[in-house]
TrEMBL record:
Residues 16-476 form the Aldehyde dehydrogenase domain. Keywords: Oxidoreductase. This is Acyl-CoA reductase. Gene3D superfamilies: Aldehyde Dehydrogenase, Chain A, domain 1, Aldehyde Dehydrogenase, Chain A, domain 2. InterPro entries: Ald_DH/histidinol_DH, Ald_DH_C, Ald_DH_CS_GLU, Ald_DH_N, Aldehyde_DH_dom. CDD domains: ALDH_AldA-Rv0768. Belongs to the aldehyde dehydrogenase family. The keyword Cell wall biogenesis/degradation does not apply. The active site is at E253.
Length: 490
């Protein structure tokens, strides 16, 4: 890793400044459990400074007053700098959270780059100004920046989640206080340097690593206009309650327990191979992964045979090793959570086709990838988000039963349908109550919205919808003669 950032300060108001307190956050490499860096743990006073800087940059600074085209120009320079640092970003996140290096560049660096490019592309046609003409009147409808955004992100794919919040915030003219997860603060430091080099004005983006108590202080801060959070459903409920007290705008992208439905005509060879990414990407630590596999009783033996072979083909080990496909969990707590679910699955009567034990490593936060069969819909491993390389196979007798099983979840984030009859598969996808459904694993791209039904969240990111939640809509009544030219002259 060629980049060495300064980890003794906070990025506030366009400067690297000393924190108010002495507390530090240890950053551990999950492969060895060893501390390799520390950063300041922000205090309430540091949050006050960050919000004040963002508030001043929004209320009196140049950023919101620039045209959309001028802001896009700055962000295109940022994109170029970001692209030049993809390898460094990937290596940094491997150190922070243990993502295997063979996929880190694509999962942890190129994915956020593509998200940024997607927002830049959509912005070119987003209706920031729109003339509405009716027999009852004429209005200029404008979409104005919502204000100061508190962006609170998790540790699993930190840069992708940051980009889902940062790109629409900056393009619309908002300013940001970014709160990275304690496990992965370093990539945010690199990001801050790149934004500064690109010419983003002082105070527009501020970075405050912090613990849970200080993070809640940020969420409740009167200087914040909107909170955008990605993380657990439990934390999302708390954030929604806090924001509701002040009617603060909030977007929540929360947990998932996504189902992949295998119809009887599915090509299992192709489908199971796609699960290498759709179910095991990032060592199983992605909220949208398909962790419930719904298959007919007739085809279950074939699926289980292929799943066992798939897992056997995915080496577990040191994330630096280019052969490794499943690395460690991010920390000891997450390792213990996953191992507990594996034990609970067996206690409730599920059978491990592969895995099911404790990973045999002297150090590091490793778990055994596990595939369960004989899983019933009410089992905890079929209802609760595990966030690790653990799959539950559930069998059905009829297609209606398959759809009912897929929908038997408090979550509704993602899903998949596998079939060789695409028209029929599309109809089945339309019956699954999730924000995203992938037909035969087909990606939706960066111009389509993502987000969840039910307990998987509130709001959408990406596409036009990704801009909507960072804007406030204003309608200005216009005399008809003035309206004819207003869009062209302003």
């Amino acid at each position: 890793m060629v980049w060495t950032g300064q980890f003794d300060k906070l990025f506030l108001g366009g400067e690297w400044v000393a924190p108010n307190g002495d507390d530090r956050i240890d950053v551990r490499f999950p492969g060895t459990e060893e501390v390799f860096a520390t950063v300041p743990s922000a205090t309430r006073g540091d949050v006050d400074r960050a919000v004040a800087a963002a508030r001043a940059a929004f209320d009196t600074g140049p950023w919101p007053k620039l045209s959309v085209g001028e802001r896009l120009g700055v962000l295109h320079r940022f994109r170029e700098l970001y692209t030049a640092h993809l390898d460094t970003m990937a290596e940094l996140i491997t150190e922070e959270m243990g993502c295997p290096s063979r996929t880190a560049r694509a999962v942890q660096a190129q994915a956020p780059q593509l998200l940024l490019e997607g927002y830049l592309e959509v912005a070119e046609s987003y209706p920031f100004r729109d003339l509405r003409v009716a027999s009852t009147g004429t209005a200029l409808v404008t979409r104005e920046p919502v204000g100061v955004v508190a962006a609170i992100v998790p540790w699993n794919v930190p840069q992708s989640v940051i980009m889902q919040k940062l790109a629409p915030s900056l393009i619309t003219g908002c300013t940001v206080v970014l709160k990275p997860a304690p496990e992965t603060p370093l990539d945010s430091y690199l990001l801050a340097e790149l934004l500064q080099q690109a010419g983003v004005p002082d105070g527009v983006v501020n970075v405050v690593p912090a613990d849970r108590e200080v993070s809640e202080y940020l969420v409740a801060h009167r200087g914040v206009d909107k909170v955008s959070f990605t993380g657990s459903t439990a934390a999302g409920r708390r954030i929604a309650a806090v924001c509701g007290g002040d009617l603060r705008r909030v977007t929540l992208e929360l947990g998932g327990k996504s189902a992949a439905v295998f119809l009887d005509d599915a090509d299992l060879d192709t489908a199971v191979e796609s699960l290498r990414l759709l179910s095991f990407r990032n060592s199983g630590q992605v909220c949208s992964l398909k962790t419930r596999l719904v298959v007919s009783r007739r085809r279950e033996p074939e699926l289980l045979e292929r799943l066992a072979a798939l897992v056997e083909s995915m080496p577990v080990g040191d994330p630096h090793d280019p052969e490794t496909q499943i690395g460690p969990m991010v920390n000891a707590r997450q390792r213990d959570i996953v191992n507990n679910y594996i034990a609970v699955g067996q206690q409730q009567g599920a059978r491990a086709v592969v895995g099911g034990g404790t990973a045999d490593f002297d150090r590091g936060y490793f778990v055994q990838p596990t595939v369960f069969t004989d899983v019933r819909p009410e089992h905890r491993i079929a209802q609760e988000e595990i966030f690790g390389p653990v799959l539950a196979v559930l069998r059905y007798d009829t297609e209606d039963e398959a759809i009912a099983i897929a929908n038997d979840s408090p979550y509704g984030l993602s899903g998949a349908v596998f079939t060789t009859d695409l028209e029929h598969g599309l109809a089945v996808a339309g019956r699954i109550r999730t924000g995203t459904v992938e037909l035969n694993g087909s990606p939706i791209g960066t111009h389509a919205p993502v987000g969840g039904f039910k307990s998987s969240g509130i709001g959408r990111e990406q596409g036009y919808e990704g801009f909507d939640s960072y804007t406030e809509t204003r309608s200005i009544g216009l005399p008809p003669t003035f309206a004819d030219t207003t869009l062209e002259t302003r």
